[in-house]
Design goal:
Length: 499
């Protein structure tokens, strides 16, 4: 524990300040780690003025003074603080602010100046008590639609941004007392002169007459964005499963190695509990069929975008490691398939059938193989060879490493998006399952796409569990524990899923 934090605990101090050189020293002493949690009784916490502070645990919420660091992402826990009044994250390296900001209903003062933001979050206009917004020195191109809905807005600073126009509706903000817009490349050539004079009444009059009128498109976009937020909140309330709290002191973590960044960088996991396959007829078959249907859907695009793997938790040694290894260094027994499935996969081609027969003769059931042997192992199986082609090392598309999920005993769970390991497969007797969804980004897809595929599985499987339980006359509901993705070495929380 940092001495400043310990002093707060020992002396019941309600304010914590660790800044500048002191903060730099604490980070060096703790291998770059910031405490996962701070005392709950703190009313004020500041970590500022340190270029070495680049990320924070997602669970950390009490720190509301974070200016002068090098943060690229804000922890989600910040926005859910019940009494968040002031948030200062100026002079960092933020490129976006999450729409989760909508949860900060008590926020009065927000300083996000001197970052790299190109847009303000649309939910900003839904913060009923926001009175001061400082966003100067960001490449922001426009104000969000509905800015006049901030009826308590007193001070707005957006100087030296990239605004080419100011919306007329800003003139309708009823309590505005200070407006800083200097240094923007306005299309309205008279605007700089009006701003230079510094008379707020004249500035407001000019905006009312010459500001940008609201376009139907911008209004529609704003409405759609807010509708999306409302739908997300409604969806969370109507989940088909029970979401359990994050177990911060458990081993349900995945340590992400840096090498996967250039191979298959995005992974989310969750732990499924509370459902007994043996007690609910047909549920296991539904569990398997659901994975297949989502793989075939646009969410996974036949595994080209995302791949789902499921593993028996009782067979794993925690925590897990997500890493990238040379194919020759990945040894495991691939998930066995029955003879009918293998024959169907071979297709009608005599050539495929012969290749599959040769593979079956060479590789016996239960034999360990290395990942560089998978092309021979799947010979004649066009579907598996297709999945392998997504990651296979080719001279024209080099991929010298394969992404692999392993446990602490270095036992392979999966080589995604190709196949899982036999030793941890889920059977009808399994009562606890680890759901793993990995996404390979090839264009515009991101971690969000992986989360969407995982959420679809959870929602559909939760419904199937409830239906099977009702049919059997028992009370069972799928329970889901979130899993944390940690940066190897520093232990920083990269993401928590689901939330």
């Amino acid at each position: 524990m940092w001495p400043e934090v310990q002093a707060c605990v020992d002396n019941n101090k309600h304010e914590l300040r660790v800044t500048g050189k002191t903060l730099e020293q604490r980070l060096e002493e703790s291998s770059g780690k910031v405490p996962e949690q701070l005392p709950s009784f703190l009313t004020f916490a500041e970590l500022s003025g340190c270029a070495q502070l680049t990320e924070l645990p997602q669970s950390l919420g009490q720190v509301t003074q974070l200016h002068g660091n090098a943060l690229e992402v804000l922890p989600e826990g910040l926005f859910s603080l019940p009494k968040l009044h002031t948030l200062n994250v100026s002079r960092n390296k933020l490129t976006s602010v999450s729409e989760s900001l909508i949860d900060a209903k008590e926020l009065h003062v927000l300083n996000i100046g001197y970052n790299q933001l190109q847009a303000l979050p649309r939910c900003l206009v839904k913060l009923p008590k926001l009175s001061t917004l400082v966003a100067s020195h960001n490449p922001i191109t426009q104000l969000p639609g509905g800015i006049s809905k901030l009826t308590g807005l007193l001070d707005l600073a957006m100087a030296h941004c990239a605004l080419t126009a100011v919306p007329q509706e800003l003139a309708s903000a009823p309590k505005l007392k200070s407006l800083l817009l200097e240094g923007n490349p306005f299309d309205d050539k008279k605007m700089p002169k009006v701003l230079k004079e510094g008379r707020l009444k004249n500035i407001i009059t000019h905006i009312k007459k010459h500001g940008a009128p609201p376009s139907k498109e911008s209004e529609a976009e704003a409405a759609a964005a807010m509708s999306k937020l409302a739908l997300a909140a409604a969806a969370a309330a109507a989940r088909s499963y029970r979401l359990l709290p994050v177990e911060k002191d458990s081993n349900f973590d995945v340590h992400v190695h840096p090498e996967v960044k250039g191979v298959r960088p995005h992974l989310v996991c969750a732990v499924l509990r509370g459902v007994n396959f043996a007690a609910l007829p047909g549920l296991f078959e539904n569990f398997i069929a659901l994975q297949t249907s989502i793989h075939e859907s646009p969410l996974c695009n036949k595994r080209a975008a995302a791949a789902i793997g499921t593993h028996d938790m009782d067979k794993l040694q925690l925590p897990l490691h997500y890493e990238a290894l040379a194919p020759a260094d990945i040894s495991f027994v691939p998930l066995a398939r029955d003879a009918d499935a293998a024959a169907a996969a071979a297709g009608d081609s005599a050539e495929d059938a012969a290749a599959a027969a040769a593979a079956a003769s060479r590789f016996k059931l239960g034999q360990a193989v290395t990942a560089d042997q998978l092309p021979q192992y799947f010979a004649g199986d066009r579907s598996m060879l297709k999945y392998l082609s997504y990651i296979q090392d080719k001279p024209s598309k080099a991929a010298p490493l394969f992404a692999v999920l392993r446990d602490s005993a270095q036992a392979v769970l999966s080589v995604s998006p190709v196949i899982n390991a036999e030793h941890c497969k889920v059977t009808p007797e399994t009562q606890q399952v680890l759901l793993e969804v990995l996404l390979e980004v090839s264009s515009s897809e991101s971690l969000e796409a992986a989360q969407k595929a995982a959420l679809e599985f959870l929602e559909q499987y939760g419904k199937a569990c409830s239906a099977a339980a009702a049919a059997a006359g028992v009370e069972q509901q799928l329970q889901v524990s979130p899993v944390r993705m940690l940066t190897l070495g520093t232990g920083h929380v990269r993401s928590i899923f689901p939330r």
